């Protein structure tokens, strides 16, 4: 398990890497837009907007790091992750709109045959510097992501790599325009617009999947199922359900245990299942387990069907049927087991009974309740003092 100090250190490292990305993306975005506007390069302007999309994504990484550590409150019992999801949905929509505008404007310039002036050496040097800077940022961010085991930071590193690819396209277009192939600038702008649109679509798709509670991949669910099954005392696992929220995962599952173990033992088995799942999947933010004394997979929600009587009703029936039996004063207490749609009773006797009396008692008590449909077998247990 990661200690609290290590978690704080990892969070600090992740924030530092993201802040570096923020400054770099901001500077490159401004420089590309300004220089692109001055030299008349739509491709360089589009690439600057692509850098700004990275800048906004960096902001979401910082927000996720911040809000991910905030626990639930009285208004948000499951935390604040959905706020980030909604904002990401909005961001993806805006990026798709911007990408469409870039691609359409550049396509019109291409079809109209608009003359593109030679961009000059400074525009090409800027594109080359941006390409090298983003490639360095990719490697730096990826190293930090591997060290702190952050999938979110790793995804942001690959986002930086996408900017490297788009800048490479722009650089080739600028070189082409410098040698008289001005139409390459418009083509590159369309390509970059499509890349920005893909970023927006990915954000839109992933956030929409979270909002409709899409489950984790089937292989991840199967691995979680196996982790739970390997806990001592677990006899089965079913109804394992997962969903995602702001980069975290939530899992609910039913754990089948021995039907006659104590409540506290069953609960501790469930706690161990939860601990092992969290250890195997650090992205888990919430684990809810339901303890089952028998495998009821596929039987549906039990609250939709008639239930068995609870202890007050059982007490009343047993007292009514057994109070006339000589053993009644010797019964210290009894334990109820709700199994297979009926109730079994373990009777604990206070006092010493002969072997023959103990052997005959289950049959005698069972005969007194044989017409009660929800009562099953009776077992006798004697407390030895």
UniProtKB/TrEMBL annotation:
UniProt family annotation: Belongs to the cation diffusion facilitator (CDF) transporter (TC 2.A.4) family. FieF subfamily.
Record field: transmembrane: 20-45, 86-104, 116-137, 183-201
Entry keywords, A to Z: Ion transport, Iron, Iron transport, Membrane, Transmembrane, Transmembrane helix, Transport, Zinc, Zinc transport
Superkingdom per UniProt: Bacteria
Domain Cation efflux protein cytoplasmic, residue spans: 217-294
Lineage: Bacteria, Pseudomonadati, Pseudomonadota, Gammaproteobacteria, Oceanospirillales
InterPro entries per record: Cation_efflux, Cation_efflux_CTD, Cation_efflux_CTD_sf, Cation_efflux_TM, Cation_efflux_TMD_sf, CDF_Transporter
Keyword Ribonucleoprotein applies: no
Subcellular location: Membrane
Topology with respect to the bilayer: Multi-pass membrane protein
Main location: membrane
Domain Cation efflux protein transmembrane: 19-212
Stated name of the protein: Cation transporter
């Amino acid at each position: 398990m990661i200690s609290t100090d290590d978690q704080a250190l990892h969070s600090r490292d992740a924030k530092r890497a993201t802040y570096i990305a923020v400054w770099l993306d901001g500077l490159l975005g401004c420089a590309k837009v300004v220089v692109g506007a001055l030299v008349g390069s739509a491709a360089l302007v589009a690439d600057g907007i692509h850098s700004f999309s990275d800048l906004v994504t960096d902001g979401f990484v910082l927000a996720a790091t911040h809000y991910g550590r905030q626990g639930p409150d009285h208004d948000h019992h499951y935390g604040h992750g959905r706020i980030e999801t909604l904002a990401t949905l909005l961001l993806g929509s805006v990026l798709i709109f911007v990408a469409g505008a870039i691609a359409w404007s550049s396509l019109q310039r291409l079809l109209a045959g608009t003359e593109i002036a030679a961009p000059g050496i400074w525009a090409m040097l800027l594109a080359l510097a941006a390409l090298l800077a983003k490639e360095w940022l990719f490697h730096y961010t990826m190293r930090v992501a591997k060290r702190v085991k952050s999938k979110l930071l790793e995804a942001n590193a690959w986002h930086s790599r996408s900017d490297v690819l788009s800048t490479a396209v722009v650089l080739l277009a600028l070189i082409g325009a410098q040698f008289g192939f001005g139409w390459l600038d418009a083509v590159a702008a369309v390509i970059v617009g499509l890349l920005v649109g893909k970023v927006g679509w990915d954000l839109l798709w992933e956030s929409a999947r979270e909002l409709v509670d899409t489950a984790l991949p089937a292989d991840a669910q199967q691995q979680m199922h196996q982790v739970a099954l390997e806990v001592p005392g677990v006899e089965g696992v079913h109804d394992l359900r997962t969903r995602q929220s702001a980069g975290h995962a939530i899992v609910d599952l039913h754990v089948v245990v021995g039907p006659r173990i104590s409540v506290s033992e069953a609960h501790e088995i469930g706690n161990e299942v939860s601990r092992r799942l969290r250890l195997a999947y650090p992205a888990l933010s919430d684990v809810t387990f339901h303890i089952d004394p028998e495998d009821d997979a596929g039987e549906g929600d039990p609250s939709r069907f008639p239930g068995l009587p609870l202890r007050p009703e059982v007490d009343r029936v047993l007292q009514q049927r057994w109070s006339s039996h000589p053993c009644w004063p010797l019964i210290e207490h009894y334990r109820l087991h709700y199994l297979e749609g009926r109730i079994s009773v373990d009777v604990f006797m206070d006092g010493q009974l002969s072997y023959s009396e103990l052997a005959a008692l289950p049959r005698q008590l069972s005969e007194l309740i044989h017409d009660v449909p929800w009562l099953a077998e009776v077992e006798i247990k004697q407390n030895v003092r």
